[in-house]
What we know:
By secondary structure, the chain is of the alpha/beta class. The chain has helices spanning about 15-25, 80-90, 105-125, 160-180, 200-215, 235-245, 265-275, 310-330, and strands spanning about 5-10, 30, 40-50, 50-55, 70, 95, 130-140, 185-190, 190-195, 220-225, 230, 235, 255, 260-265, 280-285.
Amino acid sequence: MSDTVLVTGVQGFIGRYTAASLLAQGCRVIGTGRSRRSDSHFTHKFTIGDAEWMAPLPPALRPRADQNYVYAPCDMEDRDAIDALLNEFRPARVIHLAGALRDEDDRRLAAHNRDAAANVAAAMARFCPGALLILGSSGSVFGEQPSMPIAEHADPAPVGAYAISKRDGELAAQAVARQAGLRMIAARIFNVVGPGVQTRHLPGYLAHKVAEIEANICPPEIATGTLSAIRDLIDVRDVARHLTLLDGSAPPCVNIASGQGVVMSDMVNMFAGASSVPFALSIDRSRDRAGVDSIFADVPTISRMPGSLVPLKQSVADMLDYARFALAHCR
């Protein structure tokens, strides 16, 4: 593919890898987001001791001067700004990844996960009606399901404000798309791992704690919540690859997942095996988060795409290598 692709939320975790995948395919990438352009850091932070640091980009993700990449800041709540952006660049595809994160307040969840999706779809209908909208949604929209794996056509039953806002975003964008005849795919992304994942998520937290233990910054003990939950973990590089390969032949809702359920205690054991030093584990029930106990997906659409998935053991090793790199970069 060599078309022009607009990626919203391009400086976030998934957005960075998505842009890199598109550039490797020869696409022209128009990136947008609320933050100022940065070619050296993600938009999220991590903590060492009492200090917060911007998470550095792995060198492979840093845009080169010769790459066909344009960054144009845009607030997804500003309809006029979105209109101007779509009118100027007229992309063939829009991969909409911008949004509010879990635990943000209800207003931001509604504005950034529901209203922004509708704004983007409406602007596409006006200025590039033949384009394809790939909406970055979440596997959390499924909520509790009667059986596993979760089919792509299963009825959503979101639990909690974040999941509800992501489902509302799907519905709002779909309503606009139907009325305008716009092509749209809701890409329901499950639990993402990989180098640079935020420490607010258990895999990123584990990677950084192990790196700190190896560097003698903290005692050799890691406190976690209960580790009996089963999650569908997919590497961010696979998420990016599948998002960029989706086309109009895909169904209206697609699961972006590995198709495998992983018990969280097994993932912790992988980190223990990848660590250069031993550490103890303690369970702190205050770290438990309300949610679905077991969730993993059926992946008929992406299983037909070329390429194999990054093995979880490799993802763990790469997350730990990134955490070591980030720690050395910031000290």
